[in-house]
Amino acid sequence: MLESSESGGPVNEDLKREAAAMALLEVRPGMKLGLGTGSTARHFVDLLGAKVAQGFECLCVPTSEATAAQARSLNIPLTDLESLPHLDMTVDGADEIGPGLALIKGGGGALLREKIVAAASDRMVVIADATKLVDTLGRFPLPIEVNPFGLGATQIELTRILKEFDAEGGLSLRHDKAGKTFVTDGGHYIFDASFGRISQPKALSDALLEVPGVVQHGLFLGLCKRAYVAGADGIKTYDA
Ligand SMILES: O=C(CO)[C@H](O)[C@H](O)COP(=O)(O)O
C-alpha cells in the first residue's frame, strides 16, 4: 500500500520497495545471489530476509559490510566469491540509469565490490525509483575509487581527464558525515567527478582505468541486464 507524501504522490521509499518486490519475483529456490548496497537494495534484502524466514533457500554474497550486517541480522545465508565465484543474479540499486542500461553507481561508496559481484553474476538486475532515469549519464557525480598511495599524482591525472572529457565541474575527495576522508570497505578513497554530461562513457572508462592509482570507477557499462523502475505511474521494466 502506498503512503502519500505532502505533495500527494507516492513517497520514494514505497517506490523503491515496489521495484525491489519485482526483482524478488525473479528469485528461485537455491539461487546464488549478489546483494547490492544502498537504500533501494536494502528493501530487496529486507524482502529476501522475510522469504528466508519462511524457509526459502538461497546463498548470497554481499557487496558491502553494511549489506552483510543487514543480511546477517535477517539470517540470510552468506558466503564470499572465494567460495562461490559464480552467481546466478545480483540485485542492486543505481545512482543513474542511462541509455542501454549504462549506470553510474557508487553513491554509497561500494562500487568496487558491487562491480566485482555484478561481473561474477549471470545477470545484474537494477532496482530504482524513476528519479534515477536519465537521457545522458553524468548529472550525478561519477565516483572514482583510488588508492590512497600517491593521491596527489592520481588527482593531477584525473583532473587532466576531466578536462579532456569536457567536465562541467571538478573533482572532490569524498568525506564522511564526521568530516573525515571517506574510506571504502577495501581501504580506498573516492573522488567524485562532476562531469555534468558523459557523452563517451566507454572512452572515459578506458581513460580512467589507465591511471595507475585508480582502483575502479562507478560507470557500469554492459553489466546490467534488466532494470525495474518504479514511478508514480507504475513499474516499468527495461531490458538491455
Ligand atoms: O551504488 C550504490 C552504492 O555504492 C547504490 O546502489 C547507489 O548509490 C543507489 O543507492 P540508493 O538506492 O540509496 O539511491
From TrEMBL:
GO terms for molecular function: ribose-5-phosphate isomerase activity. Pathway: Carbohydrate degradation; pentose phosphate pathway; D-ribose 5-phosphate from D-ribulose 5-phosphate (non-oxidative stage): step 1/1. Pfam families: Rib_5-P_isom_A (PF06026). One of its GO terms (biological process) is pentose-phosphate shunt, non-oxidative branch. Keywords: Isomerase. The active site is at E114. Its EC number is 5.3.1.6. It comes from the Bacteria. InterPro entries: NagB/RpiA_transferase-like (IPR037171), Ribose-5P_isomerase (IPR050262), Ribose5P_isomerase_typA_subgr (IPR020672), Ribose5P_isomerase_type_A (IPR004788). Substrate binds at T37, G38, S39, T40, D92, G93, A94, D95, K105, G106, G107, G108, K132. HAMAP family: Rib_5P_isom_A (MF_00170). Belongs to the ribose 5-phosphate isomerase family. Catalyzes the reversible conversion of ribose-5-phosphate to ribulose 5-phosphate. Homodimer. This is Ribose-5-phosphate isomerase A. The gene is rpiA.
